[in-house]
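Quick one, T. Sequence first:
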Amino acid sequence: MKKLIYIWIFVIAIPSVVVGQGSELVEQAYLLYKKDSLTAAATLIDEYVSTKKGSTDNTAWHIRGFIYKNIYIKLDGGQENLNSKAREEALKSFKKSVVYDEGGKYNVQNTKALKFLAVTYFNNASDIILKQDPNTIEDANEYYLTYKETIVFLAPDTSLKENDVKFNLAMCTGHRKIYERDRIANSEHWDKSNEYLKTVLEIDAESFEANYSLGVSHYNHGAYTLEKLPETEGIIDMYEIMHEGTRSIELALPFMLRAYEIDSTKIEVVKGLRIIYFNLNKEKESQFYGDQEKELREQQGKL
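Structure tokens:
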């Protein structure tokens, strides 16, 4: 299953602005910014944007964005700091500069800065998923949402369907691996994993990965349940376990069949159908897909 891809963007250069006719506070803040006196610069620019005049000053918000962006990078630790308030303030500032910059004077720089910040949130989401910490994995949603909101703010018509699919598949993988570490203690992560796959299907019903993975997920869950049979003592318990395990394998079948309809050339899906039908005691169907699997292996062996 695909993982999110890291994207690295170099730090944006000092903004080119003309503050000649602006507030004295803005000029002072800008000079302090160029000297890397970032905390002092932030104090002055905050004072100005809190005034009626400053609250709609596109230049002030533009400069404030760069001040807080550099605080995020140089003082807060950059992308390693997931909870940097400076990054939040930088994002807010650049957005306000865009809103009040009716002539588009800072459009290029604001856009680059916002894309840079958006990618840091995207990468934070990736980091959280890859750590596979059951206590924090759901936090990835917040960071990915901020990434999406920022991109759409810049270009409302942007389609993030492909990224949404990749994100939900990655979240599925993260939860599944947490579940597989301890299937009893982390049983709720099996459900979470499937929820993300179903979200993918809501976005793209033709996703081979989501259909195939749901098939595998339900089959494995059923097989794991049936493995408990030797440990049971009582007819009722045995019946319940057999019913639960078989039902889970039955639930796997339509997803695996849908994956097969989407791409019947993949050996893993043909093999999956062979195994599912075999465990459902449908020998004819199992043999049918077994023959297909053999043919595919022979074909690929000749390539």
